[in-house]
Design brief:
Blueprint (H helix, E strand, L loop, with lengths): L3 E6 L4 E8 L2 E9 L11 H23 L8 E7 L3 H18 L3 E5 H6 L18 E6 L4 E8 L2 E7 L5 H11 L6 H9 L22 H17 L3 H32 L3 E5 L6 H14 L2 E3 L10 H13 L18
Parallel strand pairs: 1-4, 4-5, 6-9, 9-10
Antiparallel strand pairs: 1-2, 2-3, 6-7, 7-8
The structure holds 5'-O-[(R)-(carboxyoxy)(hydroxy)phosphoryl]adenosine (KG4).
The site of 5'-O-[(R)-(carboxyoxy)(hydroxy)phosphoryl]adenosine has 19 residues, from helix 4 and helix 5.
């Protein structure tokens, strides 16, 4: 008999539901919340309200696109955390209620493990090579920057992580500082394609081991722009593309230096990326180029699976389900990874 898993994701500002059958994706529906755009960032109260409005139509649409009746579901996987508590509460409560109504198990998923396992979402008619365990994943999003050794779909070892800001935050804050809009990553990525990455230099942090730091480089951009604008008020407008290209290159250099170090230290040659920043075209090109140079096998998640989506939650939940994990109905969402 097939295992049919409904995945639910509501950790931040995307309400998403997906259905997978025996690891193969049948549907993946995402309702993004436009309401935050004018605020220059996600407003938690508005996010949870929008999730409440979206969750029923999104789940119904996912089931209908998959051609699956609720009674055919085997289990419901949901994001327990980390994320915004109010947002997580909507997905968690919905999963519990639906699981109870259908009398099927619910399985909690760590959102970050979902991002890491995005490479394992199988799609009918698309043969995709999968990394072999253990492999390295550079997990880069708005809330995290980590190098993770993925031992199995259920076993993860964090080799290094940011001691302050996440790299996605650095992209977002750079964009905000330059008055370019939110979310900053895609905007900077686009402008960087038209700029010279070698035009300006930003100081790299010196952090021991495999950890990252992105707060210093953000401040260095702030001072750089402030000083140049004092000399020439048109500086930013006239150099937007070059600033974005140089800043993006600096961030990618920082990310890649430690990833190369991690691969050297562990001897692991299968390397993946995951999380919202893994959509960055400069980072994707650089990973492939470094991989070619160093004899790595590199794996890039499809663009649609880089940002928050329920397909990755469903696949992660599927592995937990197969391992016999079931989550009790008194489970509460958690906002921080340390509490997971
Ligand atoms: O994983 P994600 O969707 O949300 C969480 O943080 O959980 O990641 C969002 C982050 C934002 O900081 C956004 O600016 C960044 O991913 N991002 C990008 C790109 N697309 C999204 N950063 C760089 N280049 C991109 N193309």
């Amino acid at each position: 008999m097939s295992d049919i898993i409904l995945g639910i994701e509501s950790s931040c500002d995307d309400t998403s539901a997906a259905v997978i059958r025996d690891g193969y994706l049948l549907s993946n529906v995402i309702a993004s919340q436009e309401v935050h755009r004018s605020f220059g960032g996600v407003v938690p109260e508005l996010a949870s309200r929008a999730h409440e409005q979206n969750i029923v139509p999104v789940v119904s649409e996912a089931l209908s696109r998959a051609g699956i009746k609720p009674s055919e579901l085997t289990a419901i996987a949901f994001t327990r955390g980390p994320g915004l508590l109010g947002s997580l509460l909507v997905g968690t409560s919905f999963a519990k209620a639906m699981g109870l109504a259908l009398d099927i198990p619910i399985v909690m998923v760590n959102h970050l493990q979902g991002h890491i396992l995005a490479n394992f979402i199988r799609q009918e008619g698309k043969a995709v090579e999968e990394p072999a365990f253990p492999y390295l994943c550079l997990l880069v999003s708005g809330g995290n920057s980590q190098i993770v050794k993925v031992v199995s779909p259920l076993e993860f070892e964090i080799l290094g992580q940011t001691i302050d800001d996440a790299v996605g935050e650095a992209f977002d804050k750079c964009s905000k500082m330059m008055g370019l809009g939110y979310p900053g990553g895609p905007i900077i990525d686009k402008l960087a394609k038209q700029g010279d990455p070698y035009k300006f230099k930003f100081a790299k942090p010196h952090i021991p081991g495999l950890d990252y730091s992105f707060s210093g480089i953000k401040t260095s951009l702030l001072y750089f722009v402030r000083d140049r604008m004092a000399e020439d008020p048109q500086f930013m407008e006239n150099n937007k593309e070059d600033i974005c290209a140089s800043f993006q290159k600096a961030l990618i250099d920082i990310l890649m230096d430690k990833l190369i170090k991690a691969a050297r230290q562990t001897g692991i040659k299968d390397v993946t990326i995951g999380g919202g920043v893994s959509a960055n075209s400069g980072l994707r090109e650089r990973l492939v180029a470094e991989g070619r140079k160093r004899g790595w096998r590199t794996f890039l998640p499809e663009f649609k699976f880089t940002t928050d989506n329920a397909a990755m939650i469903a696949i992660a939940g599927y592995y937990h389900y197969l391992a016999g994990e079931r989550t009790p109905l008194d489970v509460a969402p958690v906002s921080r990874i340390a509490d997971f």
